Amino acid sequence: MLFRLWDPAGSEPPGLTWLPDRAGFEPPGLTWLPDRAGSEPPGLAWLPDRAGRRHLLVGRHALVREVLADPETYRPDNALDAVTPIPVSALRILSRHGFRLPPTLANNGGPSHPGIRALVADALHPVRVEAQRAWLTGLVRRRVAGLATRLRAGEPVDLYADLAADLPLLVLARLVDLPADGVAVVKEFSRAALELFWAPVDAARQRTLAEVVGAYHAVLRRFAAGADGLVGRLRDAGHDPDVIVGALFFLLVAGQETTSQFLTLLMHRLANEQGVTAALVAGATKPADVVEEGLRLEPPIVTWRRVAGRATVLGGEPVPAGTSVVLWLARAALDPAVTPRPHDFVPGQRGSRRHVAFGAGAHRCVGAHLARMEAAVVVAETAPLLRRVEVVKAPWCPDNLTFRMPDTLLVAARSAGQVGAGQRPGR
User: In CA terms, which of 79, 99, 173, 301 is 20 to 30 Å from 24?
Assistant: First the structure.
């Protein structure tokens, strides 16, 4: 569904009262503004949160791009504002760990952004990323072979935990010097950060999350004091230690966690798109085209936020200065002005690559090429396996304004007669 509404009988926390999901229906009370441009679908709606603050929801593709292309009018300053206001008790925990997150990448609309971004982009340069493709292919191939053996023995396997969860982190660690902590520690930190800042959580949960996020932030601070590689280049460029830690924070959250989420969501979709996996196995469909349709229809990030830096007009609607603008990226990808079959998974269809899963403009995801490479490898190597499995337990995505955060993707082997039976009409 597009929005999840809180249980009115519960003791829900303050914050946004609606949570965009990937596709489905609109909630009661959502009224799109009259379309002044005379085109469909409608693209703007005002929605309140429980504190009475209004947010402008933007759903049309052209309007989303208009906002993303103008970081002066629509500033990124609120990108890390907590959806649920953080109570003093949790703030004290963060402060005890020395937690600070100054404008660095996604939340930086100032003059330091281009320089920081350039150094990070160099670390994730497409040439360096492509150099990891053969290594990643070998790793994924070995894992898939092991999973296939277990499936043939009648054992169900978890494609999230056993394949996708740590792949992006392992690749990132080959490109950027990172603290030598175990995968489980980093994953706990990154998922805790996504929950703390973007989910509806109560005060007790916020304190627990603050402890996890704060403790690892302290690890990053100690690492940033003397590490080489990207950290050393940021330090040599004169950036403050807090900025260096902030860059590492964003890399670990956005540079690997969202990609492992996408891999899980995409494999789940492909397990139910037997026509697509058959075409992949036959060589009739390119993995890169499948990845683009996956990004369009199964994005791990469904919304992003901006704040109006000055009074303006968007789609004919006056937008006062200071307005919170919520960009509904997932809905924009379903705009019929972009693709002829917006709700269908059709690799290579016209407009497929015009999604905004990576954002756009000055703050477009700096790791887009990395995520695409990783996903293309996983698609190519898992297609034969995905043709022969059925989903036993689909991923569950918790309430979160921006990130889908899927968990277990449990699959089991299909019987020989079932292979191909899951093909959807028209594929």
Answer: 79
**Which is nearest to 243 in space by CA: 228, 233, 258, 253?**
233
96 secondary structure, DSSP code: H
H-helix or E-strand containing 90?
helix 88-96
Tokens of 271: 């397990």
Element containing residue 55 per DSSP (H, E): strand 54-58
Greatest alpha-carbon pair distance for the chain in Å reads 63
Distance CA 389, CA 391 (A): 7
User: Cα angle vertex 94, ends 88, 97, to 5°?
Assistant: 140
Q: pLDDT tens across 8-63, in order?
A: 223 333 344 444 444 433 444 455 565 544 444 458 999 887 667 789 999 999 99
Q: Are strands 324-328 and 54-58 parallel, antiparallel or unpaired?
A: parallel
Cα 184 versus chain centre, distance: 19
Evaluate whether 47 touches 57 at the Cβ level (below 8 Å).
yes
What lies within 8 Å, CB to CB, of 414 at 6+ separation is: 388, 389, 390, 421, 422
> What is each CA distance from 197 to 43, 46, 92, 190, 385, in whole angstroms?
26, 22, 16, 11, 36
Alpha helices in 28-87 (DSSP H): 61-68
Q: How many whole angstroms from its chain centre is CA 157?
A: 24
- Phi, then psi, of 239 in degrees rounded to 5: -80, 145
Selected from 1.10.630.10, 1.10.10.60, 3.40.190.10, 3.40.50.1970, the CATH number assigned to the domain covering 3-99+110-418 reads 1.10.630.10
Quote the pTM value.
0.90
Give Cα 424 to chain centroid, integer Å: 26
The H or E element spanning position 318 is strand 317-319
